[in-house]
């Protein structure tokens, strides 16, 4: 008699990448990329980073309130069951990441700070390996390296930069916040709809930052006067609506939906296209034309994302144990 058996480890469920997921990821990246243009106009008008983040998160929570109520009908128990995740999302992905990044750019050039923050994509790969045993395969490693090289070219870091240790530490905190955003967004065990998670996380983040402001730990000041945006004088409400609706409400909801479809690793790499979109919007709104080096970097980022995408689509190799015929 011949007996054959196969022994295979139980693999965690994964979400197959789809066109919808990629579309949502690109929408999220494009929406996030406009934050710099909106925030710059407020900062030039005298707004502190803390005030900008609080308004961004708080207004987004209000905008998403009604869609959240509709999505949560009959599912309110899931909020209680996922309370810890929502709290972490608000603290790490919303409040922590933004505060760390804005502090980093007070000590570093924006390019260096952003490059360090996007090391969060590598942290996602490391987290998936250490926490879930998803050891990165060759294509993922190659794609990671190519994408980060492309990111460095897009940011055009050949100018005069200064590696201030305090700024580097703040930027690394931003990288942790970015990684936390993708990891928590990709929690497929949560039954909380994306719009509800974004709204609840924004609420938590805004309340935490307001508390820090009340304690004097975070500067909070704003000027409700006309600001300069896109080469013209506009009401301060224009960048505030842009920050809350486009870069928060739309960006976070689309990002959560994309990450649940693609998984944290792939979604984080597609999210790196935010840099390409940021260059494009800076060109359209500020007249800053991308250089040849930046265009070459954009191609490398897309190539890196494509390699990770190909690796995600490959089946896992599972060793089989064949028992020889009994004698």
Q: Strand sequence of the main sheet, in spatial order? A: 1-2
Radius of gyration: 21 Å
* Share of β-strand residues: under 5%
Helix residue percentage: 55-70%
Total discrete domains: 1
Low-confidence runs of at least 5 consecutive residues: 1-17, 317-327
Report the end-to-end length measured between terminal Cα atoms. 8 Å
Structural class: mainly alpha
Q: Tell me the number of helical segments per DSSP (H or I, 4 or more residues long).
A: 15
How do the helices and strands follow one another from N- to C-terminus? HHHHHHHHHHHEEHHHH
What's the number of extended β-strand segments?
A: 2
State mean pLDDT (0 to 100 scale).
78
Shape: globular
- What characterizes the major β-sheet? 2 strands, antiparallel
Structure keywords:
69% helix; disordered C terminus; disordered N terminus; 327 residues
Q: What would you say about this model in short?
A:
Helix content is 69%, strand content 2%. It has 327 residues and is mainly alpha-helical.
Question: What do you see in this structure?
Answer:
The protein has helices at 19-33, 35-44, 49-63, 65-71, 76-81, 83-104, 110-117, 120-132, 138-155, 165-185, 194-214, 237-262, 264-270, 274-286, 292-313; strands at 227-229, 232-234. The chain has 327 residues and is mainly alpha-helical. It has one domain (19-311). It has a two-stranded antiparallel sheet with strand order 1-2. α3 (49-63) packs antiparallel against α6 (83-104). The longest helix is centred in the C-terminal third of the chain and has 26 residues, at 237-262.
């Amino acid at each position: 008699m011949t007996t054959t058996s196969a022994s295979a480890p139980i693999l965690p469920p994964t979400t197959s990448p789809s066109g919808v997921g990629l579309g949502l990821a690109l929408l999220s990246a494009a929406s996030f990329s406009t934050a710099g243009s909106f925030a710059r106009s407020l900062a030039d008008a005298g707004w502190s980073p803390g005030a900008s983040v609080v308004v961004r998160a708080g207004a987004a929570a209000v905008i998403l309130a009604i869609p959240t109520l509709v999505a949560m009908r009959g599912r309110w128990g899931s909020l209680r069951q996922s309370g810890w995740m929502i709290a972490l999302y608000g603290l790490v992905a919303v409040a922590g990441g933004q505060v760390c990044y804005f502090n980093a750019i007070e000590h570093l050039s924006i390019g260096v700070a952003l490059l360090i923050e996007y090391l969060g994509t590598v942290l996602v790969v490391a987290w998936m390996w250490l926490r879930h045993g998803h050891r990165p395969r060759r294509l993922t490693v190659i794609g990671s390296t190519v994408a980060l090289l492309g990111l460095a070219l897009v940011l055009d870091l050949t100018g005069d930069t200064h590696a201030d240790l305090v700024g580097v530490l703040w930027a690394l905190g931003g990288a942790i916040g970015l990684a936390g955003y993708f990891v928590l967004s990709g929690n497929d065990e949560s039954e909380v709809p994306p719009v509800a998670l974004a709204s609840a996380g924004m609420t938590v983040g805004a309340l935490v930052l307001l508390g820090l402001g009340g304690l004097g730990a975070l500067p909070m000041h704003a000027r409700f006067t006309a600001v300069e945006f896109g080469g013209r004088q506009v009401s301060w409400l224009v960048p505030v609506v842009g920050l809350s609706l486009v870069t928060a409400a739309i960006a976070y909801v689309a990002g959560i939906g994309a990450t649940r479809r693609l998984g944290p690793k792939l979604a984080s790499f597609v999210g790196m296209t935010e840099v390409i979109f940021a260059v494009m919007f800076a060109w359209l709104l500020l007249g800053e034309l991308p250089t040849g080096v930046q265009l070459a970097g954009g191609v490398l980022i897309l190539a890196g994302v494509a390699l990770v995408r190909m690796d995600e689509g490959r089946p896992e190799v599972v060793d089989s144990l064949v028992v020889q015929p009994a004698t």
